[in-house]
């Protein structure tokens, strides 16, 4: 980050706003990842073998697992966030349905569409209609613990799949360093460590509208930052992918100081970024400085690309919860989403 905040608010008092216990759930994320791996190792993989690509169906906090998978596997993974599937989906495709609740209507619709086109299908869910469908039709599914917000269950949604795809030979990375880095972050970023980097980051973002930029494997992490700030902190946030943003979005900086005075650019940095992306970021910083526009840089931790990717994700999760507290909000409830679902349920 570009600078540090020397003094902060009484975090212990603010933690009382977390009435639903999101801080505690977040602290257990490394354990959740390990439990997810153990769950995935119990799933038979033989019925799924032989695919050449996968579509990952999912929305919101469940769908992010598909975005991350697309950067982690040695086969093509295409995230799908609609009611129907692309026309090319066929027998060569593995159909992945990711719905924490099991009742996500878009995912259920696309999954039903895909079951008529391929025999290779797998679901990850805590139950709901998706679990019932899989049980009735003999479709393999990964049953994960219930009782979480979908965005707070990423360890259960993603890491069983990493274990499963390791068994299929399409995920080959070692998770040892990643889990060790997450363990260290869980100790360093919690409320018991006042003035920690996640709290400092929340203070820097407080009263601002973040524009989060990532590249390659950190692009879905930038998207995750945006959605976690939306849902936890109840405020606007936006994201874009580099180098694509260099071909359009940066032109919007010309009037940013006038029409978007509270915006702040956040660069997610990894030492494994493509050299030309690294060069672009240095130039973009100069362009921002010249226009008097604020920016932050956040560097991933660890040595490997995977560790840096997940460390940035986990830091963003913590920062978004602290930002919620600064905004006077309980991080857990998502009332507009529930209102929308209730209205849709009555829509004929």
Molecular structure report:
This protein has 348 residues and is an alpha/beta fold. The chain folds into two domains: 11-20 and 176-326, Rossmann fold (3-Layer(aba) Sandwich); 24-167, Rossmann fold, CATH 3.40.50. The protein is 45% helix and 14% strand. The protein is built from 14 helices and nine strands. The chain has a five-stranded parallel beta sheet, with helices on both faces. Helix 4 (60-69) packs parallel to helix 7 (154-167). The chain starts with 10 loop residues before the first helix and ends with a helix. The model is unreliable at 1-6 (pLDDT under 50).
CATH homologous superfamily designation of the largest domain? Glucose-6-phosphate isomerase like protein, domain 1
* Count of individual domains: 2
- CATH topology name of the largest domain, in short, is Rossmann fold
Mean pLDDT score = 96
CATH hierarchy: architecture of the largest domain: 3-Layer(aba) Sandwich
Ranges where pLDDT stays below 50 over 5 or more residues in a row are 1-6
Number of helical elements: 14
Which percent range fits the helix content? 40-55%
Strand order of the largest sheet: 2-1-3-4-5
Portion in beta strands: 5-15%
Decide which structural class fits the backbone. Answer: alpha/beta
- In whole angstroms, the N-to-C terminal distance is 49 Å
How many strand units? 9
- Overall, the morphology is globular
How would the blueprint of this fold be written?
Elements: H1 11-14, H2 22-27, H3 29-40, E1 53-58, H4 60-69, E2 76-80, E3 93-98, H5 105-115, E4 121-125, H6 128-137, E5 141-143, H7 154-167, H8 176-188, H9 197-205, E6 209-215, H10 219-233, E7 238-242, H11 256-259, E8 263-269, H12 275-290, E9 295-299, H13 305-326, H14 335-346
Parallel strand pairs: 1-2, 1-3, 3-4, 4-5, 6-7, 6-8, 8-9
């Amino acid at each position: 980050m570009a600078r540090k905040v020397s003094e902060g608010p009484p975090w212990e008092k603010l933690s009382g706003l977390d009435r639903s216990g999101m801080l505690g759930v977040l602290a257990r994320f490394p354990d959740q990842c390990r439990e997810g791996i153990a769950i995935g190792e119990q799933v038979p993989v033989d019925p799924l073998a032989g695919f050449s690509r996968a579509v990952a169906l999912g929305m919101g906090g469940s769908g992010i697992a598909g975005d991350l998978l697309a950067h982690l596997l040695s086969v093509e993974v295409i995230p799908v966030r609609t009611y129907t599937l692309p026309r090319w989906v066929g027998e060569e495709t593995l159909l992945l349905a990711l719905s924490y609740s099991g009742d996500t209507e878009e995912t259920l619709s696309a999954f039903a569409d895909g079951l008529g086109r391929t025999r290779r299908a797998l679901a990850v869910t805590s139950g709901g209609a998706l679990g019932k469908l899989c049980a009735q039709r003999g479709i393999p599914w990964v049953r994960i613990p219930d009782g979480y917000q979908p965005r707070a269950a990423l360890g259960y949604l993603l890491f069983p799949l990493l274990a499963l795809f390791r068994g299929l030979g399409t995920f080959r990375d070692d998770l040892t360093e990643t889990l060790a880095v997450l363990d260290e972050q869980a100790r360093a970023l919690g409320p018991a460590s006042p003035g920690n980097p996640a709290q400092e980051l929340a203070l820097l973002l407080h009263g601002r509208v973040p524009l989060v930029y990532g590249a390659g494997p950190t692009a879905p992490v930038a998207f995750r930052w945006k959605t976690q700030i939306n849902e936890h902190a109840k405020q606007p946030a936006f994201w874009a992918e580099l180098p694509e943003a260099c071909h359009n979005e940066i032109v919007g900086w010309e009037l940013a100081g006038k029409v978007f005075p509270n915006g702040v650019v956040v660069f997610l940095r990894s030492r494994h970024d493509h050299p030309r992306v690294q060069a672009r970021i240095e130039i973009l910083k100069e362009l921002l400085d010249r226009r008097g526009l604020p920016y932050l840089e956040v560097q991933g931790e660890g040595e490997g690309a995977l560790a840096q990717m997940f460390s940035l994700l986990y830091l963003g999760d913590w920062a978004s919860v602290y930002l919620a507290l600064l905004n006077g909000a309980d991080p857990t409830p998502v009332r507009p989403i529930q209102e929308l679902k209730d209205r849709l349920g009555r829509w004929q």
